[in-house]
Design brief:
The chain is an alpha/beta fold. The chain contains nine helices and six strands, in the order βααβααβαβαβαβαα.
Length: 196
């Protein structure tokens, strides 16, 4: 089982848009988990890709998520898509290649957050795995219209070869050990949500 490496990683936040966020199971956990994941990615200089499915109809990325992404010092980008899988939108591959120019497709590590688990998230994960990439799905950052949708989508993704993790696990793998230059900031972030 591979561990996360910040130099090969990208965080993908899939379709956390206004109208969809109103429909999902445990939206507060989703918001809090995703905000934490993006802040952690920023700490470890892991770039972030945000996708929006048909924003003309579903709205833009939900404000609480968008504001955290916008505050990042690390590179971020937004990709608009019509395809359910992010991989079906050519702009997605271009965006990731621009953010990880030295990392070949089969060496990339994707850390996934998003909705809906059983549609856009699972299709994206299956396509990324098929490309040879390593995929890590943050369980607290993924949901759907009901717990059953989320549960069985996570099961399917894990059976296909994705690793189910959480944001804190990702953080400690990116850090590697307590001597990492951002380890104190990480502890502060996990303790009280603050970064200095």
């Amino acid at each position: 089982m591979p561990r996360l490496d910040s130099e090969r990683s990208v965080v993908v936040v899939i379709d956390m848009q206004g109208r969809l966020m109103e429909l999902v199971h445990e939206p507060d956990r989703l918001r809090a988990g995703t905000q934490r994941l993006v802040r952690i990615a920023d700490l470890f200089e892991v770039p972030v890709v945000v996708t929006e499915q048909y924003p003309q109809g579903l709205g833009a990325t939900e404000e609480s998520i968008a504001s955290v992404v916008d505050s990042c010092a690390v590179a971020t980008t937004t990709v608009v898509k019509d395809s359910f899988s992010c991989c079906g939108e050519p702009g997605f591959e271009r965006a990731v290649s621009a953010l990880l120019p030295e990392v070949p497709v089969e060496r990339r590590q994707y850390v996934i957050a998003g909705i809906e688990a059983h549609i856009c998230v699972v299709q994206t994960v299956l396509d990324l795995l098929a490309s040879g990439a390593e995929v890590f799905v943050c369980w607290e950052c993924v949901t759907g219209r009901g717990e059953e949708y989320r549960h069985w989508a996570l099961e399917r993704m894990q059976q296909a070869g994705a690793q189910v993790v959480n944001a804190e696990s990702a953080a400690f793998e990116w850090a590697g050990d307590k001597n990492h230059t951002r380890f104190k900031d990480l502890n502060r972030l996990l303790r009280d949500g603050q970064i200095t």
